[in-house]
């Protein structure tokens, strides 16, 4: 009999969970009665999108070609043989009683995939299609082609949202259009375009301290970016001929933009899940310590931006993934053996100031572990190629999960999912 660990979503959380499960969970599970285990990964694209590099990829195929942001998923799992199964499709619903997920494949076929354990890793869909791969690679590259066709002639660009994506994108666009400033220049001498970054807060990059945000302000202004603080985009309406977008701001001003980019965040991709599994923001309501989903029944977990436990980001996902997978191993072992679990692993968020934000191709701001990073270090860490050389292929191949992370087991006073523990 085969037990299936089903993972929905193959961005950072889903790819990592699949590798971690195959390397550290499946080998440790009971093999009694000829029992076998399979890890099934479901995703609407056959390629993994290195979305960290999207701000530069949006602007230039020369600086960031498709080969550096799109990676075939299946080759990275070849070494696992029949223990791994990839399904090209989209989850449409889940039946917790039957422990199965309904999938619509890329060819339009309807499938029911059973699970013994389910990992939800569907993440967030950004408001702009340029920063998320919600379908396939062809759709993403088509969006890039259309944007890059418009960009060279654009004279007025408005970017809504001054988090890292908005700031990085503003820097990349302004440098591409206005060029690098002179050594001591405070602004471009002859800017070709006016780039406006709209920040809802009184400073950009809310995770970082005021002084670092002020440095980001200086670097952006040197590239020709104006920043509107304590201001929101109320509406953005494309003209009838599609040539201009009317952007209305909360301060009463209106900008007729050649390009408007919404970098204000995104929405959790959870519409396929029962409302009872979600919180008021549409995120999966997780136990903040174990990352189990209490409303979903036994052996259901959430990792990444779709979960209620996280403030988001790849760094936090890296902390959470081993927690969810360790608890999956504990729960699945108890399910197979019929013996109640006696321990579990707990997640603790790292709340230290950590964020690295390139601004153009040579500057940047950031902090790590509560310590400010100089601009040259931001460039060395991320600004050169948005971590492509250091991490992209390793992420697809599972290289960062070669070793199982250590932890201190937490003793259970009562099994958290005794209901239905031996069912399914």
Automatic annotation (TrEMBL):
<dbReference type="GO" id="GO:0004174">
    <property type="term" value="F:electron-transferring-flavoprotein dehydrogenase activity"/>
</dbReference>
<dbReference type="Pfam" id="PF07992">
    <property type="entry name" value="Pyr_redox_2"/>
</dbReference>
<comment type="similarity">
    <text>Belongs to the FAD-dependent oxidoreductase family.</text>
</comment>
<dbReference type="GO" id="GO:0005737">
    <property type="term" value="C:cytoplasm"/>
</dbReference>
<dbReference type="InterPro" id="IPR023753">
    <property type="entry name" value="FAD/NAD-binding_dom"/>
</dbReference>
<dbReference type="InterPro" id="IPR036188">
    <property type="entry name" value="FAD/NAD-bd_sf"/>
</dbReference>
<keyword id="KW-0285">Flavoprotein</keyword>
<dbReference type="GO" id="GO:0050660">
    <property type="term" value="F:flavin adenine dinucleotide binding"/>
</dbReference>
<protein>
    <submittedName>
        <fullName>FAD/NAD(P)-binding domain-containing protein</fullName>
    </submittedName>
</protein>
<keyword id="KW-0274">FAD</keyword>
<keyword id="KW-0560">Oxidoreductase</keyword>
<feature type="domain" description="FAD/NAD(P)-binding">
    <location>
        <begin position="4"/>
        <end position="306"/>
    </location>
</feature>
């Amino acid at each position: 009999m085969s037990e299936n660990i089903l993972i929905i979503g193959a961005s950072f959380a889903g790819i990592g969970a699949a590798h971690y499960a195959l390397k550290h969970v499946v080998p440790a599970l009971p093999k009694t009665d000829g029992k076998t285990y399979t890890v099934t990964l479901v995703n609407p694209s056959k390629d993994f999108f290195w979305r960290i590099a999207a701000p530069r990829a949006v602007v230039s195929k020369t600086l960031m070609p498709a080969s550096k942001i799109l990676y075939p998923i299946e080759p990275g799992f070849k070494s696992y043989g029949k223990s791994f199964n990839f399904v090209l499709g989209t989850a449409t619903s889940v039946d917790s009683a039957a422990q199965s997920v309904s999938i619509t494949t890329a060819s339009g076929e309807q499938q029911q995939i059973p699970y013994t354990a389910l990992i939800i890793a569907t993440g967030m869909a950004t408001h702009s299609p340029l920063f998320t791969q919600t379908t396939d690679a062809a759709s993403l590259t088509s969006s890039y082609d259309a944007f890059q066709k418009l960009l060279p002639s654009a004279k007025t660009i408005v970017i809504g949202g001054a988090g890292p994506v908005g700031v990085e994108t503003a820097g990349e666009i302004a440098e591409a259009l206005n060029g690098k400033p002179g050594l001591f220049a405070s602004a471009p001498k002859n800017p070709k375009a006016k780039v406006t970054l709209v920040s809802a807060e009184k400073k950009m990059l809310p995770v970082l301290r005021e002084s670092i945000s002020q440095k980001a302000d200086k670097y952006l202004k040197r590239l020709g970016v104006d920043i509107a603080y304590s201001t929101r985009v109320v509406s953005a309406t494309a003209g009838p001929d599609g040539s201009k977008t009317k952007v209305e701001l909360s301060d009463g001003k209106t900008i007729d933009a050649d390009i408007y980019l919404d970098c204000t965040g995104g929405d959790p991709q959870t519409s396929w899940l029962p409302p009872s599994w979600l919180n008021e923001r549409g995120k999966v309501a997780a136990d903040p310590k174990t990352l189990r989903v209490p409303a979903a029944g036994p052996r259901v977990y959430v990792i990444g931006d779709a979960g209620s436990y996280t403030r988001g980001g790849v760094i936090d996902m890296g902390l959470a993934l081993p927690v969810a997978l360790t608890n999956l191993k504990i729960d699945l072992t108890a399910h197979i053996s019929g013996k109640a679990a006696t321990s579990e692993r707990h997640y603790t968020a790292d709340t230290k100031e950590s964020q690295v934000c390139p601004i153009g191709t040579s500057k940047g701001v950031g902090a790590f572990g509560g310590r400010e990073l100089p601009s040259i270090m931001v460039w060395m860490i991320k600004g050169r190629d948005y971590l492509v050389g250091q991490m992209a292929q390793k992420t697809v191949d599972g290289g960062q999960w070669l070793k199982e992370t250590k932890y201190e087991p937490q003793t259970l006073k009562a099994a958290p999912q005794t209901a239905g523990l031996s069912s399914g």
